[in-house]
Every structure is written in C-alpha cells, then in structure tokens.
Design a protein that fits this description.
It contains eleven helices and six strands. By secondary structure, the chain is α/β, with parallel strands linked by helices. It folds into two domains: 103 residues, no CATH class; 203 residues, no CATH class. The strands form two sheets. Strands 1-2-4-3 form a four-stranded mixed β-sheet, with helices on both faces. The chain has a two-stranded antiparallel ribbon with strand order 5-6. Helix 8 packs across helix 9.
C-alpha cells in the first residue's frame, strides 16, 4: 500500500501499524500521514471551512473522496504520534471500514437525500442518521476483526461525551448570537451530529464486543444519560440491529432507505435534548426547555467540570 509521509521520517513500528490496520480489513488504500491534517483535508476536498476540532476532541483521521474521485485516508500525524502504535492501527482499521463503504457504493451522499426527500429538515435528519450509520458499520467491522474498545466507548469516554453534550447545549443557549434561530440551529445540529455518532459507535460495541450498562456511569453522567439518551437508546439499538458491518454488502440505496425510515429516532433524540423545527428549510427552530431544566443542566455541568478538574 502507498503511505505518503509529510514531514520527518516515520518509525517502522508506526508504518507497520498503518499497514496492519489496513490488512485487518483486507484493504489497500493510499494513506497521507501529515502534520497539516486539516489543511490537507481542505486541499483535497475544497471544504475550506474544515477543521479537525470535533468538539470533545480532535479528529485522528478521515476517509475522503478527492475532487479527482480517488478514495484516500488522511491521518493526523500530530495526534497519532502522541499515542501508541496500537491506536494508530485501530484508527486505520476503522478508516478502512469507511473505505470499504465508499468503494462498494454503500455511502449515502447529500444529492441522494435531496432527490429522495423534498423537505429540507427531513433531509438534514436523514443525512445525519446515515453518517452515524457509517460510523456504526465501520466500528462493527473493527470489532469483528478482533480489536478492543476505542476510548470514546470506554466508560470514561462516554462520560466525557455526555459532559460535552451538556456543555455544548448550554453554550448554544447562552450564546448571544443564538437570538438568530439559524445560528442556534447550527450549533445544536453540530452537537447532535457528534452525539449521534457516539451512540452509533456505542451500539456497535454493545452488539459486537461488550454490552454497555448505564448503571456503570457516575451520578452526573448517568443523569445526563437518563434524561437525554436513555429514552431512545433501545430504539437506536433496534435501528442498528439489522445494519451490516462495513465488510458486508449494502447498497447506498438500501442505506438511504434505512436512514429515511428511521430518522424519526434522531428527531426524537433532538426533542429529548430540547429542540425541534417547523416550517420550510428549518427556519423555525424552537427551544422546548423550561428555565428550571436549563438551570438544572447548568448545575450538573458545573459539578461534573469540578469533578474532572476542568475550568
């Protein structure tokens, strides 16, 4: 396989980790191992606003289709070299799951959603659902290949994601610019995109590695889980139960139909978090939260930040 290294020479253990991750899913794909991860993604995709900040952390790698139509993996050298080679291998295996999805035609692209769904808001929910489903499929393949649980799906990782969800929603609500409904909507949707992917990966762990028990969570994160995630958790598990892993065939049309049929679960999650939309193009975006609920979440967030030693 072709590994393009940008920057100083890479040690042999790291190169083997990249190769082993690809080999685990029987994938041969060009890998760009770069110090300028976000810049390289922007250059290859022309997504000029792209950053590697995913809210609760930094993106380790991304599988993308270039403007020339080539599927490549771009790996964040700065981040990965702070971690052991075993993590690089697992990250690479996960990304190769996305490679398999893209090459098999199993990816749902925005134009497919716009052709199938006339309503803009339903398109957004469907596309978000399909993106999370891709994460589930990639993780399912990684677990089937024998890899351990990734950090985001460990107890500490889940608790961190729940804390970040509370904080992101509070930040959106208190942002003066959120007087504009479109601004508030975009902030909330960014948080929803992140948490739906966490749920998708956790569902893959639950189905293909080790079950998740909310009773293991500490009181603060458990309260967030019970309020925001638990009402839809079993529905999400049911949604993902029949979704094949990335190594199994699934057409883009089948993936789209599945996302269209189940995007209501994503919408229900959004309502549990405290928001809903009406009208064309999502222009009417409503907050459905009592002041006492917001205060309670703020107190919960502050208590958890103190426990974590975060200022």
């Amino acid at each position: 396989m072709e590994i393009i290294v940008e920057g100083p020479a890479v040690d042999a253990a790291r190169l083997r980790a990249i190769e082993n991750g690809a080999r685990a899913l029987n994938t041969d794909v060009p890998v760009i191992y770069t110090d300028d991860f976000a810049g390289e993604v922007r250059r290859l995709t022309m997504e000029y606003s792209y950053t590697d900040d995913r809210g609760s952390g930094t993106v380790a790698a991304r599988t993308l289709t270039t403007t020339a139509g080539e599927v490549v993996v771009v790996a964040n050298r700065k981040l990965l070299e702070e971690r052991p080679p075993a993590l690089t291998e697992r990250v690479m295996a996960h990304e190769c799951g996305h490679v398999l999805i893209a090459r098999s035609g199993g990816e749902v692209i925005w134009s497919m959603v716009t052709d199938a769904e006339p309503d803009w808001w339903r398109r957004v929910l469907t596309y978000m659902t399909s993106n999370a489903t891709d994460e589930h499929r990639a993780e399912a393949a990684v677990y089937k290949a024998g890899y351990p649980v990734e950090y985001d799906c460990t107890l500490n990782g889940i608790q961190g994601s729940l804390h970040h969800l509370d904080g992101a929603i509070l930040s959106a609500l208190y942002d003066p610019a959120s007087a504009d409904a479109g601004h508030l909507r975009d902030l909330v949707l960014a948080s929803m995109d992140r948490i739906t992917k966490v749920i998708a990966c956790l569902a893959a762990r639950h189905a293909h590695h080790s079950s998740f028990e909310a009773s293991e969570l500490l009181p603060g994160p458990r309260a967030t889980w019970d309020e925001l995630i638990a009402p839809q958790w079993e529905l999400f598990l049911g949604y993902y139960r029949d979704v094949p892993s990335a190594t199994e065939p699934w057409t883009g049309e089948s993936a789209l139909a599945h996302a269209l049929a189940t995007s209501h679960v994503t919408e229900a999650l959004l309502r549990d978090v405290g928001f809903y939309s009406e009208g064309e193009d999502g222009a009417a975006f409503w907050v459905d939260l009592h002041d006492s609920t917001v205060r309670h979440r703020a107190e919960r967030f502050a208590a958890e930040a103190e426990r974590l030693g975060v200022k």
